[in-house]
Amino acid sequence: MTHAPAGLRLEIWGARGTLPVAPDDPSRFGAKTCCVSAEAGDRVLIFDAGTGIVPLGNRLHAEKRREIDLFLGHAHYDHVMGLPYFAPFYDPSCRVRIHAGHMQDGKTCRELLVDFLRPPFHPVGLEKFKAEIDYVTFHPGDRLAPAPGVAIETAPLRHPNGAVAYRVETGHRSIVYATDHEHLPGTRDETLERFLAGADLLVYDTTYTDAEMPLFKGYGHSSVEEGIRLCRRSGIERLVLFHHSHKRSDADLARIEAQAQADFPGAVAGRPGLCFDLAPVADRLPA
Fold first, then answer.
1. Which N-terminal stretch is annotated as signal sequence (predicted)?
2. CA-to-CA distance for 161 and 140, rounded, in angstroms?
3. Which residues pair with 170 in a beta bridge?
4. Which residues contact 70 (CB under 8 A, 6 or more apart)?
5. What is the pLDDT of residues 149-195, one digit of tens each?
6. pLDDT at 4
7. How far from each other are the two terminal CA atoms of the chain, in whole angstroms?
8. For residue 32, which of 246, 248, 207, 179 has the smallest C-alpha distance?
9. Which of 64, 110, 111, 221 lies 20 to 30 A from 74 at CA?
10. CA 240, CA 231: separation in Å to the nearest integer?
11. DSSP for the chain?
């Protein structure tokens, strides 16, 4: 059976890191933590389950979306704290596949989540989910195929307890979600550059600036300037600044965004509601 190439629609639901708070209330850049959705045809792909997954889940439930894939970058709280409040988990007509590949202690995806959702830290566990749930454990470097015509490449990132980058490819379009990664100042990450090469869009960890990096060595995060360098070296035209510090005010983020855009016009600070529509290349070719 031949499947027509699908385009990609990327939407940001939460772009903060560490804590779901912001100095400004309300904030132009939002306070919700990491969650990004990518739609390829009728398939919904979700990256991370921070507090941004809550409004996303409410929308998917209202739209009666039944087939969903969730990919965890890793399981630090800011990336999973919204998970038990994801509405489709409680709909018996839904099928959700949860993928995790960052584990360093030999746990499976299901074991990881059982350990997270248990008393006394959370009142209910996985037994309360009503949807059909598949727990998928993989290793960074594996290639995943969540739907016909959609492929996802994976790669390890440098972060305490491990993390995974995802590259979604369909219709000759590709986006990369790579957050919670610490680059080594003064060096090139050629392995990551190869993973990114030729992508249309990069969502990247820009928690700090280059000037701040020495103050936070070992924290597992990168800089705005490194995101720009990676895009230039990998031939990427669009950069989404992501995992904003919960200490950044709107004025701080607006200043950082303006400086990034002066250096690299394709840069934009992530915020809830930010969308990108990438048509399949075949749709843009003459008949």
1. none
2. 13
3. 173
4. 46, 49, 86, 96, 97, 98, 99
5. 999 999 999 999 999 999 999 989 999 999 999 999 999 999 999 99
6. 53
7. 22
8. 246
9. 64
10. 11
11. ---PPP-EEEEEEE-B-SSS--SSSS-TT-S-BSEEEEEETTEEEEE--STTHHHHHHHHHHTT--EEEEEES--SHHHHTTGGG-GGGG-TT-EEEEEE---SSS--HHHHHHHHS-TTT-S--GGG--SEEEEEE--TT-EEEEETTEEEEEEEE-STT-EEEEEEEETTEEEEEE-S----TTS--HHHHHHHTT-SEEEEE-SB-GGGGGGGTTS---BHHHHHHHHHHHT--EEEEESB-TT--HHHHHHHHHHHHHH-TTEEE--TT-EEEE--GGGGS--
Q: Could you give the domains of the chain? A: 8-272 (3.60.15.10)
Per-residue model confidence (pLDDT) at position 132 = 98
pTM of this structure: 0.94
CB 196 within 8 A of CB 205: no
| Exposure of 24 in the CB half-sphere (CA atoms within 13 A) | 14
Write the CB contacts of 80 (distance below 8 Å, at least 6 apart in sequence).
48, 49, 50, 72, 116
Which residue, 170, 177, 151, is CA-closest to 40? Answer: 170
Regions of the chain where pLDDT drops below 50: 1-2, 283-287
Cβ neighbors of 262 (< 8 A, separation 6 or more) are none
pLDDT at position 105 is 72
Sequence-separated (6 or more) residues with CB below 8 Å from residue 114: 125, 126
